[in-house]
Amino acid sequence: MADLEKDIAKILITREQLAARIAELGAQISREYAGKDLLLVCVLKGGILFLSDLVRAIRIPHEFDFMAISSYGGARTVSSGVVRIVMDLNTNIENRNVLIVEDIIDTGHTLTYMIGNLRTRKPASLKICTLLNKPSRREIEVPVDYVGFDIPNEFVVGYGLDYNEIYRNLPFVGVLKEELYTRVEEQEHSAS
Ligand code: IMP
Ligand code: MG
What we know:
By secondary structure, this protein is an alpha/beta fold. 29% of the residues lie in helices and 30% in strands.
């Protein structure tokens, strides 16, 4: 892990902090959905590590399924708001209690698209659980029901979050050294 860790400016959330908060979220979800049918919808790929720990902290019967979406245009550390489903659910969510499991809410564009899309399928309820939330970056208001951590406006990687598909396996959430992405994006910018 040492060679990936050298790219991290600082650790924002340790693995112990992640575990403790996810245990709390699991307990809260278990209480609030007790006696109800529950379907977690994990947004790939970023949500996968969070989902796998969260489901083990949930004490009630439930199902989970996956959806993969992709954003296009714009620099790699900035959300474009242009979103497309690249892999859809296997489950019919009509009349189910759906809880979306996301890695991070930044501008809110991705989740707004997801909510709009899933609502047309008539779930009994639709709520949102995100590990990380960057409230200062919001461009569209989204109703978030469960938040692991509010974080400042910094580009973070690890625990599912990537830069250019790398760093997802880091067991903590850390701030990526800025010099690792600014140069690439300046080049992309001047090329367009
Ligand atoms: P939004 O549409 O701006 O809310 O962005 C949501 C998506 O952008 C997330 O699901 C991530 O894939 C990506 N993203 C936003 N901020 C970060 C970050 O700090 N690190 C890694 N990915 C991020
Ligand atoms: Mg990403």
